[in-house]
Write a structure and sequence with these properties.
The complex is a heterotrimer of chains A (435), B (311) and C (275).
Chain A (H helix, E strand, L loop, with lengths): L1 H23 L12 E8 L2 H17 L3 E8 L2 H13 L6 E4 L3 H4 L3 H4 L21 E2 L2 E2 L1 E4 L3 E8 H6 L8 H13 L3 E3 L11 H4 L2 H7 L3 H6 L9 H15 L12 H9 L3 E7 L4 H4 L4 H5 E4 L11 E4 L2 E5 L6 H11 L2 H10 L19 H12 L2 E3 L1 H4 L7 H9 L5 H19 L5
Helix pairs in contact in A: 2-16, 11-20, 19-20
Chain B lengths: L17 H14 L6 H21 L2 E3 L4 E3 L3 H7 L4 H31 L5 H13 L2 H11 L6 H8 L14 H26 L3 H10 L3 H12 L1 H16 L3 H6 L11 H10 L3 H32 L1
Antiparallel strand pairs in B: 1-2
Helix pairs in contact in B: 3-14, 4-8, 4-11, 4-13, 5-8, 8-11, 11-14, 13-14
Chain C lengths: L1 H31 L3 H4 L12 H47 L3 H15 L4 H10 L6 H24 L4 H9 L4 H12 L1 H16 L3 H6 L23 H33 L4
Helix pairs in contact in C: 1-11, 3-6, 3-9, 3-11, 4-6, 6-9, 9-11
The chains are: A alpha/beta (435), B mainly alpha (311), C mainly alpha (275).
């Protein structure tokens, strides 16, 4: 009896306390002191984004003392997609937010949820070829945050030097190199299938070659006319993945290795090639300085050496939520984000993983090797944006399918067919025309 | 000692007359007023049932969170046509049976052991309960470390006794069972505390009676502890079986349903649809899972409830 | 002789239990004190350097001391929701078990549904918004009560069944019924299972991760589990800091458990039914 009384008492006391404390930290995101404004800025929690956002916010606040930027982090990946969607759809989004460009943006209903920036001076310095990936139906919604990155093969230049290898221009060269590397007792290809997303690179990073062989693929694919399984150039990515496994190129334990471990293997020269995004590198340079110079980048080679090139991932966008009460301050911030001064500030905090999409912003001379390699492709004009930036269609199960193909559980052709089905499901769920 | 679970129960003594019965029922109703349901019912109804009912409507729509379009049963057809649903279904059953079975057996054994006259009882209780306190994410990462092919402790220990380990989580043949065993590691502490409570509730007199009859430890276990800790067994079975049927968080942190799709369960397939932003489809999957689990759990609940009467 | 055998048996049990249950914890501790480069390996190698203090401070200071705020928030949420949960669930289970009929059948079904159906996140947000409880601790507390109610009721109901009805009848003759019957006679007898429910549901709620992520967004509202995201992202993980964080958020409940262990056992025994 005594206990129960005490317990209910305690419960009520705690509840009362909870009610009080929560009132204190209510939602006062709007104006703070007289004349000053606080902008909330939602970003993903990857170290590169956190550091970039911090550099942007700090530099901006120095120049604009009346505007305070408060960053708030969220998880990345599909969990993060859902948080962003939930917050936009429940009207609870921060004033400004950082989110992917390309197909993922299309799923956010920008017309309903974001401020239209078309023709706004905010866009003055944004590279023209970036605009399509932050647009829907001709209206522009964002500015580029961070740099573009390459999706292809990160390779250990020391290993290449030792074995006197040359950067391969065709897939056959790549296989020949890998055989020599294997003979030298080094794992030719690093697989890190514990982090399933890393298994997709052979397929997604091959898009430059797909587009070189079938220029209309993106269009036809979006319109439900072209398929991976029936387009040999598109299925090649799956074939490569199966071949790498069948030839025993992967290191031991690829099934349970993580992306971080893969990067370490590459930097230490225990593995020679790592199909990866170049943006993975900068956070590593702090702990492993040799990664800046020893690791290079090349695009996944195709069948024709004359048509060699690389696939590029566009930077994420920074957007303004329609629900913001501080539109003017938010636009001021976006204009800064898309300025060469902002790029300089970011470069100081995070070594760029590729070229900026801001006119007048250049890579520094001491940029990491992989970024320089990527810049060379850009300068030659031999790049193509990844498929997800030119088509809204992307199946959600690709990473599981590529793990299955890359582990020898599923034949390449079957994997490509499974992915076509997966894509069909997504297109239907998006309600796209022609599916 | 034990009371009936369902159906009206008459008091002891000769069968009462009609009027008498009505009077006694009135008295009984007064003793157990429905008002005691009220606080629980209000919270449950408002915060759980209403959103759930709304969600069930969305199972019939193509729902992007921003707008929804009524599509009838299309989501259900799509979910049932999901490429790996059959593997998922098999895995779900295997996982639920393995985890709940082991939790019952080990939980009961540990419960008996830890209510006995063990000197280190207190310490061991803390040790067994400890995994329950660790978050799933931490458990997932730690065991992924222990189960790694070359450097993992499990394989190093196996190598000492001359057994060749494998890439437990990266190998399609062992991934699901490895996760199930980790689930048992994490969940057995909970089963154990429920059993400890159950065994503690058994009146001492029963044990004394067995002692008077000259029964040994096995006799005590078989004829007193086992039958009289039935409420605990019932709770552990229902909780861990239903938990096993809809489990995905540990699977998700350890294998993401992989390699490929080989350790997918229905719940992880649903979660993937949700992650992909197919909210209507994932809700339809949840409705299907609900029907499947209900179809298994209701008869189980009924059967176990019956046992309770005769125990 | 038997004493010796007994002792050796206990030693074996101790060694086994330690190996199975504590080795993983040792691994967590070890990783928590390594430098970032070595921590990536995620193995049992002895640390080459010991940045214990650095890691500790990095975790505490991360994102403007969010961990400390998270502790306060998680404690409030856990204590308040468990208190409400125990009282609500015990009361309801008592009637449910004692008064069979149509209402009980419905309640039974709802309890089972609550166990089976995962909470619908987005509609729950709408609802909490409509009630003005979204992004508030009271809203989160009520949500945790609702989500854990089924589990608590299942346990309570099974154990109410073990309390002889004769006790109710005796109490009724003394003029005790309804609320008074419950609080004076039944609830004290439920102490062993009450302690179990408190234990288990506080662990569940303290460790809840998905619900606070959606129902209580924002740094000022962070809960301990959400702080794990400070060190683990899709692309990179700072393993040493992640594990330091894990250790830091696991130890307080562990210490509490060890500390109260004796009391817990005493409470369970005191509640045992005599006769």
């Amino acid at each position: 009896m005594k206990t129960s009384h005490r317990m209910t008492g305690a419960a009520l006391a705690v509840l009362a306390m909870a009610a009080l404390t929560s009132c204190g930290s209510g939602s006062d995101s709007g104006t703070a002191a007289a004349g000053s404004v606080t902008l909330k800025f939602l970003i993903d929690n990857s170290p590169a984004t956190v550091d970039t956002a911090k550099a942007l916010a700090d530099t901006f606040m120095q120049a604009n003392p009346t505007i305070k930027i408060e960053t708030e982090t969220r998880p990345g990946g599909s969990e993060g997609d859902n948080i962003v969607k939930t917050r936009l759809s429940t009207g609870d989004m921060s004033d400004v937010f950082w989110y992917n460009s390309g197909s993922l943006l299309q799923a956010l209903n920008p017309a309903q949820t974001m401020v239209d920036l078309t023709g706004d001076p905010v866009l003055a310095n944004v590279a023209k070829d970036f605009l399509p990936v932050v647009s829907q139906e001709g209206k522009v919604y964002g500015v580029p945050g961070g740099t573009a990155m390459g999706g292809g093969i990160l390779y250990n230049r020391k290993v290449y030097e030792q074995l006197k290898l040359e950067v391969p221009k065709t897939w056959a060269d790549f296989v020949a190199n890998s055989d020599k590397i294997k003979a030298a007792g080094i794992a030719p290809v690093i697989g890190t299938f514990k982090d399933t997303w890393t298994s997709q690179l052979f397929v997604l990073g091959d898009y430059y070659n797909v587009q070189a062989a079938v220029p209309t693929f993106a269009q036809d694919y979006t319109a439900n006319k072209a398929k991976f399984a029936t387009t040999p150039a598109a299925q090649a990515g799956f074939d490569h993945l199966a071949e790498v496994h069948a030839k025993g190129y992967l290191q031991e334990g690829f099934g349970s290795a993580t992306a971080d471990q893969g990067m370490k293997l590459l930097a230490e020269g225990k593995g020679a090639h790592y199909p990866m995004l170049s943006a993975q590198l900068p956070p590593f340079v702090a702990t492993m300085p040799q990664a800046a110079t020893d690791i290079g980048f090349f695009g996944i080679p195709g069948t024709d050496a004359a048509k060699n090139g690389a696939t590029i991932w566009e930077p994420a966008g920074v957007y303004i939520a329609k629900t913001t009460e501080n539109l003017e301050a938010a636009k001021k911030f976006l204009a800064f984000v898309a300025s060469p001064a902002a790029a300089d500030a970011v470069t100081k905090a995070v070594p760029p993983a590729g070229p900026y999409r801001i006119t007048g912003a250049e890579l520094p001379d001491d940029a990491i090797q992989a970024a320089k390699d990527l810049q060379a492709y850009v300068d030659e004009g031999t790049t193509a944006p990844a498929l997800e930036f030119v088509s809204p269609v992307k199946g959600p199960s690709l990473e599981q399918i590529t793990v299955a193909v890359g582990s020898g559980l599923t034949p390449a052709a079957e994997g490509a067919a499974q992915y076509d089905k997966d894509v069909e499901k997504q297109a239907k769920q998006l309600g796209l025309a022609g599916w | 000692m034990t009371t009936q679970d369902t159906g009206p129960r008459m008091g002891p003594g000769p069968a009462p007359g009609r009027a008498h019965a009505r009077a006694s029922r009135r008295r009984r109703d007064a003793a157990y007023p429905y008002a005691l349901y009220l606080p629980a019912a209000v919270v449950f109804l408002v915060i759980f049932l209403v959103p759930t009912a709304m969600a069930f409507y969305f199972a019939l729509t193509r729902w992007t969170l921003f707008d929804s379009e009524f599509v009838g049963l299309q989501n259900f057809r799509d979910f049932l046509a999901e490429q790996n649903l059959r593997i998922g279904f098999q895995n779900t059953i295997i996982y639920a049976v393995v985890t709940s079975g082991l939790k019952v057996v080990l939980g009961l054994l540990l419960g008996v052991l830890l209510t006995g006259r063990l000197r280190l009882r207190g310490f061991l209780r803390s040790v067994v309960f400890f995994p329950t306190l660790v978050s799933t994410v931490a458990v997932g990462i730690t065991f992924a470390m222990l189960l790694k092919p070359q450097t993992g402790l499990v394989n190093q220990a196996l190598a000492l006794v001359g057994v060749d380990g494998r890439d437990w989580l990266g190998d399609a043949a062992t991934a699901l069972l490895s996760v199930a065993l980790v689930d048992v590691w994490k969940g057995v502490g909970l089963a154990t505390v429920i059993y400890i409570a159950g065994i503690m509730t058994i009146p001492r007199e029963y044990y004394q009676a067995v002692a008077v009859d000259g029964g040994g430890a096995w006799h005590r276990f078989r004829h007193v502890t086992l039958p009289l800790s039935w409420p605990a067994t019932y709770s552990v079975i229902i909780l861990s079986f239903v938990g096993g049927l809809r489990s995905f968080d540990l699977i998700w942190t350890m294998t993401r349903g992989g390699p490929g799709f080989t350790s997918d369960t229905i719940a992880s397939i649903i979660y993937k649809q949700y992650q992909a932003g197919f909210f209507g489809l994932s809700t339809a999957g949840n409705v299907i899972l609900f029907i499947v689990v209900t179809a298994i759990a209701v008869p189980l609940n009924y059967f176990l409830g019956k046992r309770q009467v005769t125990a | 002789m038997t004493a010796l055998r007994r002792l050796s048996g206990e030693v074996v049990a101790l060694v086994l239990a330690t190996a199975i249950f504590l080795v993983p914890f040792g691994l967590m501790l070890l990783t928590a004190v390594k430098d970032p480069e070595q921590a990536i390996d995620l193995d049992f190698a002895w640390p080459t350097s010991w940045p214990v203090v650095e890691n500790f401070m990095a975790v505490i200071e991360a994102r403007d001391y969010v961990l400390l705020r998270a502790y306060v928030n998680s404690t409030i949420i856990t204590v308040a929701s468990v208190a409400l949960l125990v009282v609500f669930a015990a009361m309801a289970s008592f009637v449910l078990q004692r008064r069979p009929g149509k209402v009980a059948k419905l309640a039974d079904f709802l309890v089972l549904s609550g166990l089976i159906i995962p909470p619908a996140v987005v509609p729950t947000i709408w609802l909490l918004q409509a009630l003005g409880l979204f992004k508030t601790l009271p809203g989160m507390i009520l949500a945790e009560v609702a989500f854990n109610l089924s589990f608590a009721m299942l346990l309570f109901r099974a154990f109410v069944a073990a309390i002889p009805r004769e006790l109710d009848e005796a109490a009724q003759i003394d003029g005790c019924s309804g609320m008074r019957l419950f609080f004076r006679v039944i609830f004290p007898l439920l102490r062993p299972v009450t302690i179990t429910v408190i234990l288990v549901s506080s662990v569940n709620i303290f460790n809840d991760f998905v619900n606070p992520l959606y129902l209580l967004p924002g740094d000022e509202n962070a809960t301990v589990q959400v702080t794990l995201y400070n060190f683990q992202s899709q692309y990179n993980t700072q393993w040493n800091l992640l594990f330091m964080d894990i250790v830091l958020i696991t130890i307080p409940p562990l210490v509490l458990f060890v500390f109260f262990n004796r009391k817990i056992v005493a409470g369970m025994t005191a509640g045992a039914i005599k006769g």
